[in-house]
Amino acid sequence: MGSVLLTGGTGFIGSHTAVELLLAGRDVVLLDDLSNSEAGVAERIGRIAGRQPPFVRADAADRRALRRVFLDWDIEAVVHFAGFKAVGESAARPLAYYRNNLDSALSLLETMAEFGCRRFIFSSSATVYGERCPVPYREDMPAGDCSSPYGRTKYMIEEILKDAAAADGSLSVVLLRYFNPIGAHESGLIGEKPSGIPNNLMPYITQVAAGLRPRLNVFGNDYPTRDGTCVRDYIHVTDLARGHLAALGFAEAHRGTEIFNLGTGRGFSVLEVVRAFGEATGQPVPFEFAPRRPGDLPEFYADASKAEAVLGWRAEKSLADMCRDSWRWQQNALKQD
Ligand code: UFG
Known about the structure:
Blueprint: E1 3-7, H1 12-23, E2 27-32, H2 40-49, E3 55-57, H3 63-72, E4 75-80, H4 87-92, H5 94-115, E5 119-125, H6 149-167, E6 172-178, E7 180-182, H7 201-209, E8 216-219, E9 231-232, E10 234-236, H8 237-253, E11 256-262, E12 268-269, H9 270-281, E13 287-290, H10 305-311, H11 319-336
Parallel strand pairs: 1-2, 1-4, 2-3, 4-5, 5-6, 6-11, 7-10, 8-13
Antiparallel strand pairs: 9-12
Helix pairs in contact: 1-2, 1-8, 3-5, 5-6, 7-11, 9-11
The protein binds uridine-5'-diphosphate-4-deoxy-4-fluoro-alpha-D-galactose.
Residues 85, 87, 125, 127, 150-151, 180, 199-201, 204, 216-219, 230, 232, 270, 293, 296-297 line the site of uridine-5'-diphosphate-4-deoxy-4-fluoro-alpha-D-galactose (UFG).
């Protein structure tokens, strides 16, 4: 068997997926430009997995660098995590988001065609369902009504991949629509490290618990949900990573494009997450209500039944596990700085 190329391999989801693939006996090559992660992550992946994967520092849109990788290793599949991912920033810098996210997907597809690599697993997002889809989101609902340029890059890349697979019957494309990944590896060695003020809920909560920020702003308490705060489908990043292992196995036996939601199928409100964090860690999280954040939908969660039926995968870890592992990582990350 050849190697699996992980673009964004030292990022949050890429690093956890690298660990799970290595532990399952797969060889991986990590590619990352380190624009939103650190080189030390590659070494820590190796420490957890007991074997050091090769690391290449390069932009996933850089065709020369990609050719080098495909010449140096027998790449049998690509899992494409690399990309700009901040929803708010994407509205301020749309061209940078379209250029960066679309270019890397196209460069990868062109390089794969040149080297005869036939399997592409793509990190998509539940954001492609948009506000018109009722919850729970199912893979066969019409997608594309996204609320941000970031979301539209995900949807456009999905469409590019579908077209590529339709034109080349030997290509196997798997679109994985992630819900809200949180948590960290239970070793405490890898996790999410946002630069600056965190945009996402869990990194903000752990920074408040660590005393780095005075309180959490809960964006909106007048949504039509059970307690007025937004509901999301939070999934442990290790569960999500294992979903990629299942998707790779699927891609080996199939052709064409297949879409899978990677979520738990269960939603929690912001206030429920805050409460669960306090109970799981013993750390209180002071908060206050703040105005709604533009673009937030009141409630979304996955219908996770297709991944279970077809891939034999489902999320196993609880919200308490997610909170404990996020907190352990926050404490470790602080020690490293
Ligand atoms: N929230 C707060 N305070 C914060 C941060 C978040 O109350 O400081 C709330 C948000 O309003 C939202 C919930 O916590 O209700 C979750 O917010 P996140 O930013 O953690 O996650 P989102 O659901 O907004 O983001 C996710 C994915 C994106 C995707 C987006 C589409 O991370 O990739 O959904 O809505 F594009």
